[in-house]
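Posting this for the archive.
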Amino acid sequence: MLIIFISSAIPAYKFPEVQGWGWPKLIHLIYYGMLCFLAQRALRHQSRFRLLTRHSSLFAVIIAVAYGVTDEFHQLFTPGRHGQITDVLIDGFGACLVIAGVEIHRLFKHRPAPEHDN
């Protein structure tokens, strides 16, 4: 979250000009995907609140999207930057991609090994 906050505080004139859907949107996917991954791991491995453990993936996505909203609000106060709902949607998409990967990994990890006839 600190890395995201610091990145959002950099004025627009200090960034290279990038046209179209590219590097800045990819950064959103990566940052929020990692935030979601770390939040999901933290929630899954805590033992105090069972609801958070049981639904760690859902709560991790909620945390990532909620932080994305606050990040876009923060950018309203950064010179040359502005908040965009599309960036929040991309943040959520990055979070969902990571959770999909985590869930797919979990399915294959706990799958019984096939028996071989030797």
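The mean pLDDT is 88. Residues 74 and 109 are 40 Å apart (CA to CA).
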